[in-house]
Request: fold
Amino acid sequence: MQILVLNAGSSSLKVDLLDSQSGDRTATLRAQRLGTPQASYSLESPGQARQSTELPGADHAAVLQAVLPTLTKHPIQAVGHRVVHGGTDFSRPTKLDSSVLATIASLESLAPLHIPANLAGIHTAMALLPDLPHIAVFDTAFHSTLPRRARSYAIPQELGYRRYGFHGPSHQYVSKSAAAYLDEDPRDLRIITCHLGNGASVTAVEYGRSVETSMGYTPLEGLVMGTRCGDLDPGILLDMLRSGKTLDQVDDILNRGSGMAGLSGVGNDLRDIEDRAADGDEACRLAIQVLTHRLRKYIGAYAAVMGGVDAIVFTAGIGENSALVRHRVCQRLDFLGARFDEDKNRDAQVDRNTPVAEISRSNSRVRILVAKTDEARAIAGAVGKVAAGGEELAENPPIPIGISARHIHLTQEAVETLFGPGYTLTERAPLSQPGQFACNETLTVVGPKRSIEGVRVLGPIRPKCQVEVSRTDEFFLGIDAPVRASGDVANTPGVTLKGPAGTLTLKEGLICAWRHIHMTNADAERYGVKHGDIVDVTINSSGRDLTFGDVMIRVKDSYALEMHIDTDEANAAQISRGDVGALVSSGKGGTLLRRRTNFDPA
Reply:
């Protein structure tokens, strides 16, 4: 499918006409200095020389009007638009209409330099190509999976500020490229992606989803960038304002006069800074040191956040081309098992034909990679799926919803420790899933702060002990439990169980259950999903309609069709017995997370 991808900046325009699956380009346009007397654009296509044209004073509309007649000689099935900020409203590619455009316009305060330019490109393209579907792909969408602890600032929540993250298409694209190079499913890997250009960010991609990222409410937070400061003590801003600087002056310093340009004093082109540093310029040396130190600090932090890392990936202009930056960043990462090969680093080159190069030693436990990013291809791929109807599952039948209260799964050894030698669990009532039952037996769960009595044991026995609690229970007990699929208890917190015949302290096993849907293979075929896929389910309840994201599909022919959520989630949507949900997006069109192979299918 041929997709026209538009990336409209405040004074620039990038247009790519490419195949959504292969990434092959039919045409590429680059326009710069729009709105000035020096405005110009270049148009390039395979087998033809680049054509450069000066168009003094041209804006986005003028350039598109000039080149679209040439581009539309080729068959175009859809138009994709990069939109920098989706706020909390958009977490996936979205077809553009008047309502969506109004919502995007309302987000201008979150990205005042980007949203107006994005909208200018959208309105022009929609006017010139009114019969094609126009679909927005949001920079922030990939980071919509950030857990609450990662997206929250330590300020009063009613102020409405939170972390969003940016460069989403690039981080998602190169994490998949890295997984393909390693011949692994991205849902089985912990990857740190380093997008290093004039704008720079680093993301922790855990099992296919973003769980931490360096940019926040705006693209100003995080790493040292070309002209942006990155992380900064907010007290400095207060001092600047108190010393008499205006808001506009502070904005200009932080966004346009800081970063590598501010540190080096020679501009933001890293090639110039590296050359001056090699000649002994101390300011340029400092700029490189601060840049690489901060990135190395983030890599160490993100490895800790994920409990380890399988691959570190460098991408974008600096990440792909600066052997010096990669060298300095990878120093002293041996403690992670990341062993750097300097010869491979100097020789590393990536392009569309060789999208990934490895720069780690053969004995490196953590693979270090350089990957060619291609945001236009990432956008085209996402747009192609939407245009083909991959996100539409409106005709699927509703899914029954089951509410799962806190409960415990035990091994036979644990049963005998807690209830006495030779003890066997006794059935109280059958559960919705065939062969599963609630037991007469209950236990006390003892946490660091408090205990919960009368927690029901479920049968039959399992190969691993597991305690499933809600977030409310977690805070009550005083334990930070991760969200996991059943049976995936590695590196989870332990907890103490107290029974009538003894006490058992688990080293691991306390989780908040990942919301999921049990279904048979026939169900999966009907809904167009696979085991391990992630979907959204919308609930139509009395006055508390809600869409649940990150719902895992679990397929086995012994299952009965049912979505399982915990009591907190049920209360949030005011769900009661007999309520149903509707599958609104599938793994075919949405974000696929880890396809787990190590969890208990029961």
Q: What stands out?
A: DSSP finds 18 helices and 29 strands in the chain. The mean pLDDT is 87. The first strand starts at residue 2 and ends at 8.
